[in-house]
Design brief:
The protein has about 150 residues and is of the alpha+beta class. Helix content is about 30%, strand content about 30%. It is built from 4 helices and 7 strands, in the order βααβββαβαββ. The chain has a 7-stranded mixed sheet with strand order 1-2-3-4-5-7-6, sandwiched between helices.
Amino acid sequence: MKIVVDDLSGPEIAAFLGEHLEEMRSLSPLESKHALDLDDLRKPDVTFWSVYDGTELVGCGALKALDTEHAELKSMRTTTARKRGGIASFLLEHVLAEARRMRFSRISLETGSAEFFRPARRLYEKFGFTYCEPFAGYRPDPHSAFMTRTL
């Protein structure tokens, strides 16, 4: 597998992220959906990675700078057919290493609190994330779980 910085110009990643947004809309009320769309992911404060197995797009993730020391993990997704196959761990290791290289000292995230998101929360716990209060303008929300870790 390989991880590449993606400029989000290709149709394959656009469709992949479109599926992600639709899935998030189906699982959370609109006011609790915090997934970024393509335009927001293309902003200069975001670094976006795609994961390929050969030529097949199998996952993605992003890091959004909140300030010079704090970043937010965004858009973590694995194809349905490859979930629980190690792709998310492979990508998260890479993102954390890149965050250190970029000199961030803290990474935070928002994910869903529903049962559907339990595997994601377990993954983040495995990588040292702990639950925290809302950050960066988020508000308390029964549909959200907030997590953070220092690097």
